[in-house]
Amino acid sequence: MTAGRKPPGLRDVTRGRILFGGDYNPEQWPEETWQEDVRLMGAAGVNSVTMGVFSWARLEPRPGERDFGWLDRLMDLMHEHGIGVVLATPTASPPPWLGRLHPDTLPRGADGRTERWGGRQHFSHSSATYRRYAAAITEDLAARYAGHPALTLWHINNEYCTFDYGDEAAAAFRRWLRERYRTLDALNSAWGTAFWSQGYDTWDGILPPGDAHYLKNPTQVLDFRRFTSDMLLECYAAERDIVARHTPHIPVTTNFMPLWTGQDAWRWAAEEDVVSVDLYPDPRDPLGAQHGALVHDLTRSQAHGPWMLMEQAAGPVNWRGVNHPKPRGLNRQWSLQAVARGADAVCYFQWRQSRQGAEKFHSGMVSHAGEEGRTYQEVKRLGSELAAIGAEVTERHVRADIAVLHDWHSWWAGAHEGRLSTEVDLPDVLHAWHRALWESNLTTDFAHPEHDLSGYRLVVVPQLYLLTDTAIDNLLGYVRGGGTLVSGFLTGIADEDDRIRPGGMDARLRELFGIRVLHEWWPLDAGETVACEGFCGTLWSEEIEAAPGVTETVRYRGGELDGLPAVLRTGRAWYLSTLPEPEALRELLGRIAADAGVRPVLDGLPAGVEAVRRGELLFLFNHGREEVKISFMGTHRDLLTGMTVTDEAVLGRYGVAVLKP
Amino acid sequence: MTAGRKPPGLRDVTRGRILFGGDYNPEQWPEETWQEDVRLMGAAGVNSVTMGVFSWARLEPRPGERDFGWLDRLMDLMHEHGIGVVLATPTASPPPWLGRLHPDTLPRGADGRTERWGGRQHFSHSSATYRRYAAAITEDLAARYAGHPALTLWHINNEYCTFDYGDEAAAAFRRWLRERYRTLDALNSAWGTAFWSQGYDTWDGILPPGDAHYLKNPTQVLDFRRFTSDMLLECYAAERDIVARHTPHIPVTTNFMPLWTGQDAWRWAAEEDVVSVDLYPDPRDPLGAQHGALVHDLTRSQAHGPWMLMEQAAGPVNWRGVNHPKPRGLNRQWSLQAVARGADAVCYFQWRQSRQGAEKFHSGMVSHAGEEGRTYQEVKRLGSELAAIGAEVTERHVRADIAVLHDWHSWWAGAHEGRLSTEVDLPDVLHAWHRALWESNLTTDFAHPEHDLSGYRLVVVPQLYLLTDTAIDNLLGYVRGGGTLVSGFLTGIADEDDRIRPGGMDARLRELFGIRVLHEWWPLDAGETVACEGFCGTLWSEEIEAAPGVTETVRYRGGELDGLPAVLRTGRAWYLSTLPEPEALRELLGRIAADAGVRPVLDGLPAGVEAVRRGELLFLFNHGREEVKISFMGTHRDLLTGMTVTDEAVLGRYGVAVLKP
Amino acid sequence: MTAGRKPPGLRDVTRGRILFGGDYNPEQWPEETWQEDVRLMGAAGVNSVTMGVFSWARLEPRPGERDFGWLDRLMDLMHEHGIGVVLATPTASPPPWLGRLHPDTLPRGADGRTERWGGRQHFSHSSATYRRYAAAITEDLAARYAGHPALTLWHINNEYCTFDYGDEAAAAFRRWLRERYRTLDALNSAWGTAFWSQGYDTWDGILPPGDAHYLKNPTQVLDFRRFTSDMLLECYAAERDIVARHTPHIPVTTNFMPLWTGQDAWRWAAEEDVVSVDLYPDPRDPLGAQHGALVHDLTRSQAHGPWMLMEQAAGPVNWRGVNHPKPRGLNRQWSLQAVARGADAVCYFQWRQSRQGAEKFHSGMVSHAGEEGRTYQEVKRLGSELAAIGAEVTERHVRADIAVLHDWHSWWAGAHEGRLSTEVDLPDVLHAWHRALWESNLTTDFAHPEHDLSGYRLVVVPQLYLLTDTAIDNLLGYVRGGGTLVSGFLTGIADEDDRIRPGGMDARLRELFGIRVLHEWWPLDAGETVACEGFCGTLWSEEIEAAPGVTETVRYRGGELDGLPAVLRTGRAWYLSTLPEPEALRELLGRIAADAGVRPVLDGLPAGVEAVRRGELLFLFNHGREEVKISFMGTHRDLLTGMTVTDEAVLGRYGVAVLKP
User: Of the residues B60, B159, B272, B378, which is catalytic?
Assistant: First the structure.
């Protein structure tokens, strides 16, 4: 955050409406199409478009030249029609001339090869030249549109996600390391370079961890990920500071990819006025709605309140092996689900499906089928519904008694190539734990392990391989303060430098959970299960000797671990040394939550029905294709239909109700 | 074709005989083996050998030196024994010294790495130096053997199939683009560079579409494929013009790989005097014979008559994971099948199996087992049979009432990485449609969508994703003129620049087929099927709103598309929005063909029996291992046995009959 | 071997004890941990540690500097505690400064990319600079510790396994080729460069066989593998000669990887005083014990007697997809199995599990769980058992009547990418044949095909694709001399230059086995079997015409090969043209062995029980988890328990008995 600036926020953009719209790339179309666009936007209730994301070559067709005329006309056109503009800095995709004239702006891969233009995102985050050109176009863009009445929000770059292993990045990496470690001794110690004769005698000898003969140094890899996230954040902050200087009253965002490995999103979110995310669940994924809910919960937690769904698809995407369209009603349902979980903006990539280019099979709000197509017709209906509920919904908060902990540094360290099992993938583990809570309609926030957790009744740690001492103290303090903590395996293994804690797991945590000796990790093969009392475990198991103080255990049954504890409880601290199958994990977490005084949003819901409260509103979703009946107490008004419902609601296929008491 | 030259043809080579022989690489053997070779060739009825394909290093052991003596002796030896020589320009595999002294002759891959010698085909099609050396050796070869009585046919290079992403190729690509588009504006428009900020401000900024960060520009990729085919064709034409200048009376060919993606074979075939192809079905493939038939039909259509099977294997190849030999009788059967479908030449790679080098496990007509080996013994029998039927067969034509349309540009565009389903693979789709016709003994030609189709009763379009306006007019005119047209899905989607047609499919075609709105494409997962009235569809389905004028439909049953049309007929135009399972497609096409007045070669054949007519001869093939009885009308003479058969023929395992009324 | 040096051997190190210990990397730990280490070592009976393997950067922190102080203290500490030191030259992993200051020391991959530091083994075997620095540090190390009383054995480098395709390696390859072939004509002939126009006109034109457009020249690839093995051996020999000069009385070894493709281990073993190997079977592999036995047998044969197990894991490794720990008792059992099969040293990588670096999840004798952990507790028990049996075991020999032949050159040639079946993998085939013998408790040596075989009653050739004339003469002489020979398919196919023998298989071998014509190879698909009389064959089959003199055959049943011989016996020579399923191969080899007068160690053992004799001691192993009873004749003392057993032993889960008559 730029010092001294009172941060504007999403409320300054929404002003009581749910934002509805999407990326708009009119430079791909003749101007006559623009008129058609505003007509269709108007009919669909579109009130926001994002422009300029990939317009650099158009705005600066030759180095230093500027062509803003077309954008002037579009800004005016939008304003005329009452549509706000999310204006993007176009720096995600430099024009071909930049790479041609300045090869130093091009990134190099782990294999040393230079990436060239012809796709997108071919820029080095460390390139001084790139940053200079990016700053210049950002400066001119901000200066030109600072006072334009259509401007509502700044969108910096797009889906920051690149790596660079080239020479300029190597130099920057060394500078970053000097700042972190000050001395080579400290670095050699943190990286454990005594192993495999990797001791550095000069800073100059340090390289990005490119392709190597065999396993790479894990802390070097970890630091390179930290560095990369920080370099991208520098790029973001530089552009943010420019636009904020011109328009202190206009908030700034950059759009995340959901649960993306490349950015420490906790740290990034703190640098944004508005937190926004792109979200593309597979319409065929039976757990697509849960994946959506997880991303909603995570983004809401990063935003500490309402957030922005910057991109989703009205129909199919084009980057999977097989790209399925959204069946009738699904786009509406998933959009309203985002609203239920805190979104005050429902936007798409993109307004009008492209006829050319690499994404011409990625859907738009207006598909190739045009106005008559089912896709646009459904968008239109959704637009009117969002307009109807907007005033009741925006700026309302979702409250949760449960926090799920997640940390990017832990993810990075735990994913090292030399780990015990490549079957253990953190996103899968996170999804498994979140699913157990979601299926029980237990609303959850996400939190960082060093956050203040005292407001939560239950803290869930699916897996935090790396925990700083501060984080460990935080967890211990949380339990001491009366909180209930439940943790999965591979938690507390490594310190901040990815140094294994003595005993294979932090001693304080072992004491907390009642683990006397952690003899061996027993990872399971793909598809293998391990029998426990009452359920089967997956992915992992452990040879643990319990401490005397353990209150309760579930034991392994049969096999090498027969009789050893699979689940341990010591007071309010639970430890799961395996990942129970979905139903068992749901049952177990439900019980733990109940003991901790946490209730589901509604009890006794049919399978496949999701309930979530936002403010006083109760949102209900039927994720199935068969009609369901839902019982609850009292009389509500369904804001979508305007009808009054008493004690029971009926939801058809992909049905949604937004009930106000 | 060189202007003013009256083209010689295959008839000038065959002169009433079926060519029989193969690649002969005597430089791998001591001269005493040559004597053995001609003895075994004589015994087997070999009348043609191909020499010099990989002899460059032998002919030009050092830059500019020439060593023709060994080839002189071989040419003479062949002539002595009455064996014609197909003489190859040796330019497919330059000698090591060329790359060493002229690194600019080496191609670079999409990843920027230079390919070096040590294998074969390590030449850049765009290299001026390569072309100069290739022209020089071609010139001297042509000059030396122009008058040699053994020379029957020129064989230019071998299986043109290379790519180059290097600097000289990049420059050539830019020249090619300037010629195609004239202005950068035209190129930017055709490529849709407004998407992802790819607008070019100079020709110099344009690169070959090498590896990129994410999806590449599809039209750039399409144009690079067009360019590559054209560059290779330039290489071919340059050598062809040299030899044609020396020997205007000797025809010229280059050998295609079957259904190879790298060459626009329609365009190439027009530049050849003789169309030849290499064909290597897997002996284990239950549809190997159909694959053969497809390639025969395609090659015959490119040749507009008799064609040349330049390479096949008498036994196993060595480039599959597991390479199976040909069971007893299969080599004979597949060779005669090629003759039935128009081949006037049955040749092999290679005469004598190599003892050394990368292909020493690729079979030869004389295998490692030698004269006593089963392989040679079967070759010998085949040779005598071909000699027996030659006079009755050569130059006779195969007639077809059905044309299957295929176009390389459409294939290239439709294969872009950013498409909706990677499960849809054009060769598979082509094979599926051809199979349905082949199993019904409905003889088919192939044709280009802009060819004159008026001679056909039925035109079949398995898939033509890209169609030019000319092609669309051609199809519309064909139907207006009384023809029956049946098309599969993903046809008419894009224009010549791979720009999606408004509505997602060309409006004229939608009207032709009775499609009012094409709402969404519904690709199917691998192995998934969709129920339709009476059959299951595979690979794809569509959400279509039919137009009022539709004559007949088959509907989807169940699922999201329940009740929507899967197959539409509007007059004589049929559209299939899914790929029916094999039996259903066969039944449907059989019915459409019958309605269009097309009859199978023979009715009521047992499964696994193929019947095809060439001129007045009726060829029958039993592709099974069990004896079958085949009924037909009248008395014929079996040219293979000399026996008379009346009303019925009995074919044993892999049996063949060639019946003359 | 350095001329004139009377070689010391393993007995000079063991002196009546079994060596017990492992790699020790104290530079990763503070000095206070060293005290803890020697205490735990003492308690566990550790008598040997390997130091310095990856200490180059510590010993030479900057070019030319030396830091031996820490190692001095450790050598003294070990000596104080009666622990011998296997001292390693640290040349496997150069310090970062070497690559930085001397990029010519870095190797390049087949794709031309330079490998850089950050992992390990980033050195070019051909780099003069690398060799110079390696010699210098070796010289100083040897000089310093030549007289140190703790020094027992030199360990040169570590797991030599690198390739280099760079320019200096290319030059060395050319020198190597000049020495091998003298003239380019000889090379062109050996490589068969007449194929694909690869004829070389200068030595300079020859490249390492890097990535190519299509299949590479197989003999070039073969020679490059020979060259690579020889270059690495030069590196080894140079360091060996230095240390031997300083300490002629101290033996020298380098640790092999088991059945590793990169070194001609027969040739290497001849250059070592002590043969040592690293061995990491997967604890989950049901045939892990057999894999161990195979490596034991191979290493013992290379050593011509007792050998050293240099590295194994006390628990999991960290380089598989899923890395399983060793269940209780398995580490002990597999260690004693190595002793039974000739090991006089049972060592580990590594003493104390690392807390940092790429292998921190690779187990140690002291695991992360520390002294209380099960792993260390089991190590301790094993140490005391080894101490108890040491005097009875060391220097005793294992005797075998069967030799299994294996040759690296044959492996290399047979693995060429252009072969008939990629399903045929020599290590698999070797394991299948060895398994059949191992499961019958038929003790086997390994031998090279040119070794003197006259001491064996039965010689088994799983597959020797390439056989020199000398080897063929050796085999023929062996059978003539009364020996029984049994061979699998793909034997005797190629000569030393990988030139296919006329007839597809050496004529003398065909005569020996009774093969008149080998018509075709019929490789089988993955998972496919072929029916034979009484069993099923896998992987391969052949179309063979038997010679009149064949004594006995087993025939194929059904399919294309119906009635042809699958197994042929001609006198004492057997040929198997397929790989019988495990039970059938065991039965067949058991019968052949019995006929040749070879008896199992014990008859009638339960499944899963292994018996092997070392000297007069009988070792028994129960590889199952259920108790078994084993019957034998007479009274023995079990050296592990001190108990007397008569006629029967009972072995529990993973049980072991060491019985002395």
Answer: B159
